[in-house]
Amino acid sequence: MDEQLHERVRDVIASVPTGRVATYGDIAAIAGASTPRLVGRVLREDGHDLPWHRILRADGTPAPHLAHRQLELLRAEGVLADGQKVDLRAYRWRV
């Protein structure tokens, strides 16, 4: 991944507002990434200072190893989940 794409992905993630969520695919599409996996890679390698908790899987669920903490952070922002799933129709960020 080139540095420009890396920075575009970071910029898009950073722009997801409080109380909203986006999917890995949403971020990839906006940033011009070829696959949502690149978004996950950026978050894994360089996402400590980003609102990572606002990025979900396409079905509205968090990554299993982050689920408890991610849902806790989202709840603090007013994003409620039904079990382990966030209603994307209600909370999805629209650019």
Automatic annotation (TrEMBL):
Domain named Methylated-DNA-[protein]-cysteine S-methyltransferase DNA binding: residues: 5-79
CDD domains with a match to the protein in the record: ATase (cd06445)
Entry keyword set: DNA damage
Keyword Transmembrane on entry: no
InterPro entries cross-referenced by the UniProt entry: ATL_DNA_repair, MethylDNA_cys_MeTrfase_DNA-bd, MethylDNA_cys_MeTrfase_DNAb, WH-like_DNA-bd_sf
Keyword DNA damage belongs to the record: yes
Annotated protein name in UniProt: MGMT family protein
Species name: Amycolatopsis dongchuanensis
Origin organism lineage: Bacteria, Bacillati, Actinomycetota, Actinomycetes, Pseudonocardiales
